[in-house]
Amino acid sequence: AQVIAVMAKAKAKQFPDALPRYKELIQGLTMAEQEEFATSFSETFAASAVAAGEIDTAAQVYQTLAARFPDSATLKQKVETELGRLARVGKPAPVLEAQDIEGKTVRLASMRGKYVLIDFWATWCTPNIVELPRLQDAYKKYHDAGFEIVSVSLDDTRTAVADFVKARKIPWIQLHNATAGADLVEAFGVSSIPATYLIDPQGTIIRLDLRGGALDEALSKALRPAG
To answer: Any residues with CB less than 8 A from the CB of 186 and at least 6 apart, and which?
Structure first.
C-alpha cells in the first residue's frame, strides 16, 4: 500500500512528497533478499521522475538504493551507469557523425537550431513498437516547426531495420548502430531500450526518455505545432 501511495504521488508529479516516502520505504528493507524488489521499485519510481524532467529526484533514488545495498556489485554497476546517463542532462550532446541505413552521412551538428530526439530502439522491442504511432504523430505535428528525430536501431542486421522502416513508412533518419561507423550506444551511455534524448537547438541534452504524452507536452512548450 505504501509503494502504491508513493507511485500515485509520482504519477501526480508530487515528487517533493514522494521522495521522502520512498527513502523511508527503502531504509525499512532490512534483508539482502529484498534487493530485487527494491531495485524494481526504484527503477519504476526513477523512470517516472525522469519522464517528468525531475533528474535530481531520479539521481537521489539511485543513490539511496546503492547506499541501502552497498555489498551488491551488480547493483553498484547499474547505479553508476544510470547516474552517468542522468548526468548527461544539461551537457552538450556527443558528437554524432555516422552513416544512415541508406549510406548517407548524418551529422548532429548540422541540425543545430532544431530540437532533435535521439531514439534508441529495435524492431524486436515491444515498448518501442507500441510507442511508434506516438512518435509518428509528434513528427507530423512538430517537424515543420523545427523538430527532428534520429532513430538508432540495435537490431542485428541493417536489413531488418530497412524492411521495417519501409513497411511502416517511417520518414525520419534511421541509423543501424552496428553498421553506422560509430558506436552511438556507447557515446550516449545507453544501457537499455527504449531510451531517448531530447537535444535543444544549442546542442544540449535537456530531457531523457520522453514518451507518449510527456513528449508532446515538452514539444508543445518549445515549438508551435504545424497547422
So the answer is: none
